[in-house]
Amino acid sequence: MSLPTELKVDEILPPLTVETMVNGGAGLARYEGRVVFIPHVAVGDVVLCRVTKVKKHFLEAEINEMLQPSPQRRQPECPVAGECGGCQWQHLAYSEQLQWKESLFRETLTRQCGTNPDKILPIVPAADEWNYRSRVQIKCSNPNATFVTGFYRPKSHSVISIDRCPIIAPELNTLLAHLRKLINRTVHAKYIPQIDLAVDDNRKCSAVIHYAGSDLSSLAALLKAGSLVADMLIKSGSKSKLFPIQGEGVLQISVDRPPMKLAYAVGSFAQINLEQNRTLVAAVLGLSSLTGRERILDLYCGMGNFSLPLARRAKQVIGVEESAASIKMAGENGRQNQIENVEFYSQSAEGALSRFSQQNSVDLLFLDPPRIGAIATMKELLKTPVNKVIYVSCDPQTLARDLKLLVNGGYELVSSQPFDMFPQTHHCESVTLLQYLS
Q1: What is the SS3 assignment for 355?
Q2: CA-CA distances (angstroms) from residue 404 to 242, 298, 365, 366, 427?
Q3: Is 428 domain-assigned?
Q4: Does 86 reside within a domain?
Q5: Looking at the structure, do residues 234 and 343 belong to the same domain, yes or no?
Q6: Which candidate, 127, 139, 377, places its Cα nearest to that of 277?
Q7: Active site positions, annotated
Q8: Is the pTM higher than 0.85?
Q9: Alpha helices in 300-365 (DSSP H)
Q10: Do 210 and 236 have their domain in common?
Q11: Domain boundaries, position 25
C-alpha cells in the first residue's frame, strides 16, 4: 500500500469530484484516502483545488478551476457570492439547500444522540429565500479614501465591497446606500469599522455607527444633516456607549394571534427573520400544549419573544435573561400587552432552574440559548427534572451535545424539527421537545 503524497499549502490537487455536503457548508471530496473539504461547491462538481490547510487526516482546499459543474448548481443572485463570507450556498437551488439542511440535521442527531430518525420532522422552509434579514452587521473600510461597505472575506478582515445584498431587507439596502454616500470622502470614514442596520415589522429602520474617532459632535451633525429616515445612534468610547442622534432607538416586532407587539432596544437581540420567527413561536406554542395551569421557566428570554405568548396560555411564566436592557424591554412589553402573570429577572441562565424550582415546581422549561448551547442547564435538568423541555437551537452541533446528556439521563426526545431561518447559508434553527420519563 503506497503512502499518501506529502502535500503543502498552495499545491493544486488533480481533479476531484464532490461527494456530499457537510456541517459548516463545505463539500467533501477525497484524495489518496484523505478527506478534502471545499467551500462553495455542489455535489457532483468536478474541480481542481488549491490546498489551503494540511492536516494528518484531512485537507482544506478552495476551487482553483471548475472543470465540470454539477446539475445542482445555479447562478448566484449576488455577484460576489463565493468571495463574501455572508453566504455559503447561493449557488444551490433553494430546494437543494433545504434538503441538505434537513439531512445534515438528521444525521447529527441520529449519530450523536442515537435519536430515532422518525422523531425528526421535515424542515420548515422560509417564506422567502431573499431579502429576509431584518438585522445585519455591515463591515467597513476606507482604502484609497473611498468608503467601502460589505462583509469580510472568509477567514479574513478584508472587506468585500457590496452595493446591494440580496438577503437583507430592501429598506436596509436603501439606507446603506444613503449612509455610504453620506460618509464617503469625509474625515470620519476611516474611523468607522462597522454599521449595524435593522428594520422592524413596521418597516422602521435603525443604524448604529461604530466610531473610533474623537469628533463625535461633527459626525452627529453629518448624520443629522443627511435627513435619513431612520433612528440613528453612534457607538463610541472605551465602553462602547450608545449615543442617540435621531429617534428613540426602539424597534417593534409582532408575534402570536391575536397579534402581540413587542418592542426591543436597538442593539439588543431579536431574530433576524421576522416572518420565520412568527412561525417558530407558533410551533413552540403548539408543542407546549398548555392548559392554563402550568408554571413555565423561560431561559435566555430576551425581550419576551416566547415568554409573553406562552404567558397568555399558562398560569405563570418566569423569564430569565442576562441583558438588563432586554429585561427592561420585556417588562415594558408585558405591561403594554396587559400580561400580568409573568416576571422577568436579569441574571445568568446558569443556576436559574435550581433557584426557581425551590419556590414552586416548573412544569415546562423553555430555552433559546446562543450558539454555544446550554450545557450547565442540561446538568441542572438531570438533578432537577422538569416534566417537559422545549429547546430552540441555532446550532445543531451544540444541540446534539446538550441533548445527549438528557436522553441518557431519563428524558425522551419526542420530536425535533429544523427551521430554515437563514436561507443561502448553512445555518439551521430547530425546536426540540423532550419529556421526562418519571
Answers
A1: helix
A2: 41, 21, 17, 17, 21
A3: yes
A4: no
A5: no
A6: 127
A7: 394
A8: yes
A9: 307-311, 324-336, 352-357
A10: yes
A11: 16-68
